[in-house]
Specification:
single chain, about 350 residues, alpha/beta, 8-stranded mixed sheet, about 45% helix, about 15% strand
């Protein structure tokens, strides 16, 4: 009788664990797909239009494939280019968000390749796929540039922010033609960043569920989860500048931030720069741009709150047009000067 009771308890525990694993797996899949759902811009951006930059520099629209997904971008040509800077943007953003930084590169005689990552803005893709995907997209951009008429004979540099910064570092080791990388607001390892996301979003439950989250990430990306930003940096001879804002609320400066993997980074060309009073999206902005962005966010948020998050689109456009332009993404001359000097040293 006693043995039957023990077997019954064991069966109950096993059944409970199986149900828990199944339900947890379904929940993790749902949350994962929600976090990485496709990002589409459905109204005007506060950043300058691509055509505005084309008034000063020759622009050509481009497209190329990354693992069967069509990515859309633009090439801007400097008059006497020293190199091409391939630029990759943040999560839930677009290449247009980098146009102020692109202008700074162009004005210093660097041609620029801007493109939207998988599942973002104009590029195709039913989702962003996950934190590892930008490495494939950046790699595809490098391969595209190698065959593009105005870029193929130029040294290749990479610039990335957030997931784009991770992607630039993770890809650099596979492409010896890359001469230098600037990575801003990036994480060092996708698994560590997923854990940070999980705990931030679901507290203790997120930590408990993390093994299933990590397993799902492994299923999605396979062995690519181990080819992270750190391994990419270490397997390349190119120098890399790692920049992070001390007020970053998205990639914790004391957590999954790439800068915190310094003891694992063996590339002798790695340099580090921490920026006071800057967060995830405004790391390179001037004080004026930071103030303008704060005013814009306060005004646009107040509008959304007054209409229960469903304001008339015309009212939204009025506020966007009020702040739209290069001033809202103006770069800090000192930080940008350090980046230009770093790139100059890498290619000259």
């Amino acid at each position: 009788m006693k043995k039957k009771k023990i077997r019954g308890i064991i069966r109950t525990i096993v059944v409970f664990l199986l149900i828990y694993i199944i339900l947890s797996s379904l929940y993790v899949m749902f949350v994962y797909e929600s976090v990485f759902k496709a990002y589409r811009s459905d109204y005007y951006s506060v950043f300058p239009d691509y055509e505005t930059l084309a008034e000063a520099y020759e622009m050509n629209e481009i497209s190329f494939s990354s693992k069967g997904i069509t990515l859309i971008g633009r090439v801007y040509s400097a008059e006497a280019p020293k190199a091409v800077v391939i630029m990759a943007h943040n999560k839930d953003a677009s290449a247009q968000s980098l146009i102020g930084i692109a202008e700074a590169f162009l004005s210093n005689n660097y041609s620029v390749l801007l493109f939207d990552l998988t599942g973002h803005a104009e590029s195709s893709g039913d989702s962003q796929v996950g934190l590892c995907r930008p490495a494939d997209d950046v790699g595809s951009a490098i391969e595209f540039a190698a065959g593009y008429e105005t870029l193929k004979n130029l040294p290749v540099l990479l610039y990335g922010q957030g997931i784009g910064g991770y992607g630039a570092c993770a890809a650099m080791g596979k492409y010896p033609e890359v001469k230098g990388v600037v990575s801003v607001s990036a994480y060092g390892d996708s698994a560590d960043m997923l854990l940070e996301y999980s705990v931030k979003g679901m507290s203790v439950f997120g930590a408990v569920e993390f093994p299933i989250t990590a397993l799902y990430n492994l299923i999605v990306f396979g062995g690519d989860v181990f080819n992270n930003a750190v391994s990419g940096i270490n397997s390349s001879s190119a120098p890399v500048m790692i920049i992070h804002g001390k007020e970053d609320k998205t990639v914790n400066p004391e957590g999954a931030a790439l800068k915190n993997y310094r003891d694992r980074i063996t590339n002798p060309g790695a340099v580090y720069l921490e920026i006071e009073n800057r967060g995830h999206n405004n790391t390179l902005y001037s004080d004026n741009a930071v103030a303008l962005n704060k005013a814009y966010e306060e005004e646009i948020n107040a509008l959304y709150e007054s209409y229960n998050n469903n304001p008339p689109i015309d009212d939204v456009k009025v506020i966007i047009e009020k702040y739209k332009g290069f001033d809202i993404c103006e770069t800090d001359s000192s930080v940008m000067g350090s980046i230009i000097s770093f790139f100059d040293s890498a290619v000259l």
